[in-house]
Amino acid sequence: MLITGDSARLHEFGGFEFRSLAVPSRGSAEIALWTVDVPEGGDGTPHRASKEEVFYVLSGSVTIQGRRPAPATRSSCRRTPSCR
Fold first, then answer.
1. Do 32 and 51 lie in a common domain?
2. What is d(CA 52, CA 25) in angstroms, rounded to the nearest whole number?
3. Distance between CA atoms of 71 and 84, rounded to whole angstroms?
4. What DSSP designation does 6 have?
5. Which of 14, 9, 12, 13 lies closest to 25, judged by CA?
6. Which of 1, 11, 82, 84 is deepest in the core (most CB within 10 A)?
């Protein structure tokens, strides 16, 4: 199944726009892949993940667990389930 950003199901929460590209409801067994558009100054709700989360920042900046990666054209960071 080919899913593009345009055909992905849109979920909105707190000003954030999530699009599910690969998730169990679409046939994925272990992997979930989402695109997320975050409004400037957006602040996510603290939560615990049941799996690792990987963020790939295309533009702007992100702070996760009080840490902000050094500015770069693109950044990625990993968050483990044991962390908030």
1. no
2. 18
3. 23
4. T
5. 9
6. 11
